[in-house]
Amino acid sequence: MGPLSRPYLPMHEVTKNFAKGMALLNAYQLSEALTILRSEPIDSPCYGLAVGNIALILLRQEKYAVTRLFFFLVMELFPIWT
After folding, report:
1. Whole-number mean pLDDT of the chain?
2. Contacts with 13 (C-beta within 8 Å, 6 or more apart), sequence order
3. CA distance linking residue 2 with residue 31, whole number of Å
C-alpha cells in the first residue's frame, strides 16, 4: 500500500492535493485546508471526499448557511446516504 492510499478504500490512491488538505485539517489550519480542498478538480477520485471535508470545515467555522449547501452537494455525490 502506497503512502497516499487509505486502508478503508482498498486500491484508492488519494491525490497529493487532498493529502495536503487533510494534513492541514488535522493540524486545525482550517482556512488553509479549505483553500487546498476547494482546488481539488471535479474529475479527481478524491473530489467527493474533498467536498465532504469542506462541509466539515465550514461547520467548524460556524458558517451554517454555506455548510448546508455543501451537505446537500455531499448527498448528491453519495446518494446511498439519503
Report:
1. 84
2. 2, 4, 5, 45
3. 28
DSSP string, 4-15: TEETTEEEEEPP
Please identify which residue in the block is written with the cell numbers 455543501. Answer: 70
Distance CA 33, CA 72 (A): 20
How far is Cα 28 from Cα 11, in angstroms, rounded to an integer? 28
* Higher local confidence (pLDDT), 11 or 23: 23
pTM for the complete prediction?
0.78
Give the chain's largest Cα–Cα span: 39
Q: Are 55 and 70 in contact (CB under 8 A)?
A: yes
Q: Which residues contact 40 (CB under 8 A, 6 or more apart)?
A: 15, 17, 18, 21, 46, 47, 50
